[in-house]
Amino acid sequence: MDVLAAGQNLPGFGDQPIWLTALKVLGVFVYLVLMTLFTIVFERKVVGRMQNRIGPNRVGPWGVLQSLADGMKLAFKEEIIPVLADKPVYYIAPIVSAVPAFLAFSVIPFGPEVSIFGHHTALQLTDLPVGVLVVFACSSLGVYGIVLSGWASGSTYPLLGGLRSAAQMISYEVGMGLSMVAVFLFSDTMSTSGIVAKQNHLWNVIPLIVSFAIYAVSVVGETNRAPFDLPEAESELVGGFHTEYSSFKFAMFFLAEYINMVTVSALATTLFLGGWRAPVPLSLWHGANAGWWPILWFTAKVIAILFVFVWLRGTLPRLRYDQFMAFGWKALIPINLVWILAVTAIHVLRDRGWPAWQATLVPLAIVLFVIVIPAVMVWDGASARRAADLEDDEDDHARYEPTFPTPPMDLVVPTPPRSLATAGVRRRPAEIEGDDTDV
């Protein structure tokens, strides 16, 4: 209760007029829509450059309005609804996917306090003592829209895509959630504005590089992006969970995917990259972290993370589904749990007055010698056993090869005379009677 009571007094929230809250809501909505339009063109341009192509260059200057034209086209296309679709669920599934994507941005801080028409308020829609968990909950709700869309389409391939996406999101949400625990321990708060305030002198990406790496991998799987886009595998499932959707409903799934990319990029910026604070060269300027300038630094960090999404899509091939799930459950989650134990030990030792270098080296040394080295030895032993089993299987296969005579692989079968006669080819009498040399 004390934590909740303290959270109600977060500065800049709870006492602002309704019109200012409505203006912030409109600003967040416009920001997300513009970032979505930008990301679509940005992705096509970057991938085109990677593949030595031009990319979109017809609509608008340098093709920058191509995503707007695609959105207008989707809105006015004819809508086709499957006969076997469950109509109410079929209609509501795109909404369930798109709405949580917008809600998750409500606790993301864009900048410090500014003056808007004479009112001092923070560049953030709202904040809570558990603000990060709000983003986590909203991202978890998006899977319902995907599962419902696959089930309500009345088709096999969308159903398989929905089930894949559910299993994928559950496994990688565990890794993503555990990667945030170290940030909570390091910052002593779960408020997004409080986490940014704690990174005044040192960004969390430096001491929590392991958490940042695990978060980066988990959000790629969470957003169904390549090389983890298995729910939408064209070679296996045609188009995935939204195969039977068209027109504006398909556009809502498309919008939700790109807004989720922007949201997880903004959350990574908030948790690990200092939030809206300027990077080191620019932070030397006294006014870099004041006024409206922090929105520019925040957007630049988000675009840099979006570039990594695009880079992965343009370079890495798609994984096999069993490899992907095994990586999430057998690699990311155990590493995350060990890392959380190490961070907790460092945190406790610092609170008890240990020097910083001792409190850091002792838990890491224990983890290295007690967990990491034995785990590597066990992994090497398992790999050696698998290689030995493979050699045994090959020996058994060679031992039990068939001993009965088999025809040679280069045997040439002569054409029957009747087929030659049908084709209008006459043969010599020796050929009809049979000539060993011909055979």
UniProtKB/TrEMBL annotation:
Major localization class: membrane
Catalytic activity: a quinone + NADH + 5 H(+)(in) = a quinol + NAD(+) + 4 H(+)(out)
Gene Ontology CC terms, in alphabetical order: plasma membrane
Compartments where found: Cell membrane; Membrane
Position of the signal peptide: none
Gene Ontology biological process terms, A to Z: aerobic respiration
Origin superkingdom: Bacteria
Region described as Disordered: spans on this chain: 393-439
Topology of the protein relative to the lipid bilayer: Multi-pass membrane protein
Transmembrane segments: 18-42, 89-108, 128-148, 169-187, 202-221, 250-272, 292-312, 324-349, 361-379
InterPro entries, per database record: NADH_UbQ_OxRdtase_su1/FPO (IPR001694), NADH_UbQ_OxRdtase_su1_CS (IPR018086)
Record key words, sorted: Cell membrane, Membrane, NAD, Quinone, Translocase, Transmembrane, Transmembrane helix, Ubiquinone
Similarity section: Belongs to the complex I subunit 1 family.
Subunit structure: NDH-1 is composed of 14 different subunits. Subunits NuoA, H, J, K, L, M, N constitute the membrane sector of the complex.
Matching HAMAP family: NDH1_NuoH
Role: NDH-1 shuttles electrons from NADH, via FMN and iron-sulfur (Fe-S) centers, to quinones in the respiratory chain. The immediate electron acceptor for the enzyme in this species is believed to be ubiquinone. Couples the redox reaction to proton translocation (for every two electrons transferred, four hydrogen ions are translocated across the cytoplasmic membrane), and thus conserves the redox energy in a proton gradient. This subunit may bind ubiquinone.
The protein's name: NADH-quinone oxidoreductase subunit H
